[in-house]
Write a sequence for this structure.
């Protein structure tokens, strides 16, 4: 059934480029006022005897990592400033390779900050913090018959705008023998985008706009509700 | 049905948000308060980031008090001398509060500090309301009280004549009260009317006629200043969230104005006190319980 669906998708969607051996059902996601996160459908083909590792890595941003620890009665946050944290990170593999196995492939770990060959408590904490926000996944690609795979996952509503790079590694005997890359573009659109840009770049205009709106809205609401 | 809040960067159920707004407006309407000290903690409890809850509540406070100021301006119930003195203190307080919030946000301690302050404010107000209700109805039934008695405040230097309120007191007292309320507004987003009004009556000795108008005048201007500072320094005001709160709380306030005459005021006060204790209990639980997640990332 899946094979038929995938074959139909491959044939009927010439816009979906299939360079390498995987694709996504969409390459652009728009964040607008109705955005509640978006399901992405990853699918492709794999050669027999080879494993696949597909990594989604979002734009790197500055951030702060907080770790809660109990001091007396309170839970206090310890802070670490970080220069580059991906806005999103997902690792899918077939058959499921544990993260530790992927760590053993240096050509992959060299290219991705969040997965390093040596164990790092800090990286573990970052992954856990991202996982809590729904911004980090480790999962298995679902095999369909022998050579096709699919995976459906959700880009959460707290995703930041920017490109998510999608890397496909073909693995044989723990060596990368083939590599391809695509981009999933996340962009803020419409009113949502305008508000955020205005707040960042023209905060005075944003404030004035908000003040005028709140006065007008409260006057209208008062007038409406008082008359009924 | 969920709705995306662009600055909070979360989606929230629109019915939860609207119910919250209506509830806050209803309580505000019943008790004549701005509702900020209820809306901030409730927004945090439903998952809005604390800094955004504070910033957006400031807008709601501004909106809910600004129309009241217009009414009191028309009725000439505002003591501008007193209001401006408190606003001068309030400007410094607000700036301190907003910078303090910014600092706490940077060190990641905002949730603990904010929740602790809300717990103190909510429990303090609840105890005060319940005590006052009990005092009037149980302890000293049918006895008359003096609203204002002379205290050490009236011995402070730099005295000034406030003509509208017929007071001759030190400007230091309203300046400090204004500073305190501004600090509270900048740090927690609340208007602080429930603290300001008792201070004006019991500490300064103002007449009740001009107290409401003057406090609304002070809260409106201070929340306006706080709003600008929050946007400039913390960038934590969510337009969509603020507008939703304004509209829904207006509806709640309108419902309250219809039912208020049918309700027993003393029972309402007790109910309000109990409600505050319930909200404070939830915050206390959140403050001390073992967190589900030990790690958190905030992007800059």
């Amino acid at each position: 059934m899946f094979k038929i669906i995938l074959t139909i998708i491959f044939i009927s969607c010439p816009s979906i480029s299939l360079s390498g051996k995987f694709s996504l059902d969409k390459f652009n996601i728009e964040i607008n006022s109705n955005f509640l996160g978006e399901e992405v459908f990853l699918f492709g083909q794999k050669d027999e005897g080879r494993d696949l590792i597909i990594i989604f890595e979002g734009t790197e941003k500055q951030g702060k990592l907080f770790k809660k620890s109990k001091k007396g009665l309170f839970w206090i946050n310890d802070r670490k400033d970080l220069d580059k944290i991906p806005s999103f990170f997902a690792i899918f593999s077939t058959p499921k390779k544990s993260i530790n196995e992927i760590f053993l492939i240096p050509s992959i770990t060299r290219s991705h900050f969040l997965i390093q060959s040596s164990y790092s408590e800090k990286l573990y904490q970052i992954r856990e913090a991202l996982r809590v926000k729904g911004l980090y996944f480790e999962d298995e690609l679902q095999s369909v018959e022998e050579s096709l795979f699919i995976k459906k996952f959700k880009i959460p509503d707290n995703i930041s705008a920017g490109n998510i790079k999608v890397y496909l590694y073909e693995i044989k005997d723990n060596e990368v023998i083939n590599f391809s890359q695509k981009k999933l573009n996340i962009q803020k659109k419409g009113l949502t985008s305008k508000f955020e840009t205005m707040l960042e770049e023209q905060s005075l205009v944003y404030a004035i706009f908000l003040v005028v709106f709140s006065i007008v809205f409260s006057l209208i609401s008062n007038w409406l509700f008082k008359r009924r | 049905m969920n709705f995306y809040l662009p600055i909070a960067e979360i989606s929230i159920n629109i019915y939860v948000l609207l119910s919250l707004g209506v509830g806050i407006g209803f309580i505000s309407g019943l008790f004549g308060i701005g509702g900020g000290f209820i809306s901030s903690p409730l927004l945090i409890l439903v998952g809005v980031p604390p800094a955004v809850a504070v910033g957006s509540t400031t807008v709601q406070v501004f909106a809910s008090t600004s129309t009241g100021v217009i009414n009191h301006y028309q009725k000439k119930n505002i003591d501008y001398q007193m209001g401006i003195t408190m606003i001068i203190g309030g400007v410094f307080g607000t700036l301190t509060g907003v910078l303090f919030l910014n600092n706490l946000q940077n060190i990641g301690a905002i949730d603990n500090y904010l929740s602790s302050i809300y717990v103190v404010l909510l429990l303090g107000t609840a105890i005060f309301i319940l005590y006052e209700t009990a005092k009037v109805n149980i302890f000293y039934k049918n006895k008359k009280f003096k609203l204002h008695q002379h205290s050490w405040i009236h011995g402070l230097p730099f005295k000034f004549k406030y003509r509208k309120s017929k007071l001759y007191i030190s400007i230091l007292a309203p300046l400090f009260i204004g500073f305190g309320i501004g600090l509270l507004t900048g740090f927690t987003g609340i208007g602080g009317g429930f603290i300001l009004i008792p201070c004006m009556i019991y500490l300064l000795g103002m007449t009740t006629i001009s107290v409401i108008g003057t406090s609304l005048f002070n809260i409106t201007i201070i929340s306006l200043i706080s709003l600008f500072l929050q946007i400039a320094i913390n960038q934590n005001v969510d337009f969509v969230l603020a507008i939703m709160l304004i509209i829904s709380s207006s509806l709640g306030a309108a419902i309250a104005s219809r039912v208020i005459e049918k309700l027993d005021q003393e029972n309402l006060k007790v109910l309000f006190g109990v409600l505050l204790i319930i909200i404070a209990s939830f915050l206390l639980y959140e403050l001390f319980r073992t967190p589900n997640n030990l790690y958190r990332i905030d992007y800059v």
Notes: Chain A touches chain B through 62 residues (CB under 8 Å). The two ends of chain A are 58 Å apart (CA to CA).
